[in-house]
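In this section we walk through a basic example: taking a raw amino acid sequence and producing a predicted 3D structure, encoded as discrete structure tokens. The instruction is simple. Fold the sequence below.
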Amino acid sequence: MVKKNDNFLTGYVSIAGRPNVGKSSLMNRIIGEPVSIVTRKKQTTRSPVLGILSSQDYQIAFIDNPGIDFKNKLLLNKRLKKIAFSNVIYTSANIVVLEAKTLFSDDLKILSNMPEDVPLIIALNKIDKIKSVSDKEAMYKIVPELEKFKPVNILPISVKKSYQLELLVKIIKTYLPVGEPLFENTLITDQNLYFRISEIIRKNIINCVGDELHYNIAVEVTKLQKGYARSSCTIIEATIFTSKLSHKPMIIGEGGRKLKAIRLRSTKELKIILGTNIHLSLWVKLMTCWNKNPSFLNHMGIT
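The resulting token sequence is shown next.
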């Protein structure tokens, strides 16, 4: 544990926003490790992912929430939205990530749902894309609208360039209460290996297959066996669930090429994380309309 310090600051900080504004990338960049998977697809994050930043005098437990999408009516999406809003109530501070140039109606809805008694920090991301005078004017014009939500700070940042991320952490620290560390200082996440492995596989499916299957796939790790046959090899078996029969050949690919690419990409990443050789087996299984099935969503921990 971190050495006891009467001035030690600690607390949970939630990161919220629309899909694809850079929430997961922000947390990963601050933590310094790829704790939460990142793709260009909407709502890649399905379960809140905890990223832990520890030092000698503070510990911040970031909660990376699913992107909040008010338009998608799937039961899966409704649950993701519920999860995100439930995680901003009992925190020491909340960060809402927006795009620096444009304010969308969903941004306003998200901000209006932030609890008034929790300090609100608005992070204007992708500041690196602001090149022209008109871009700067567009950013300045949205500030008065944001001030109506009484944020404690409106901070332009660039996750890609790591611009002002250290300042963001300093701002967060001013709203943390004094207390004992929440986690061991060596931990960067509380997620178990089954979850992290399934997320890596799901990320590579999304990247290999494309947009049309994003909301229709789920991954469950069914076997994790380390040190197989007295070797340094880790045996992993996982099932890829798809909601439509027509999606199976899209995931498998001609001659199994897509599934092989997914397996090889995942194996490469898992080898780094686990520090062992990996033997990964993948199966594709039809689970009709799983993203509308309450019992299956419960089974997958999306509640």
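Looking at the output, two observations stand out. Residues 193-299 form a domain with the GMP Synthetase; Chain A, domain 3 fold (CATH 3.30.300.20). Residues 97 and 123 are 5 Å apart (CA to CA). In the next section we compare this with other chains.
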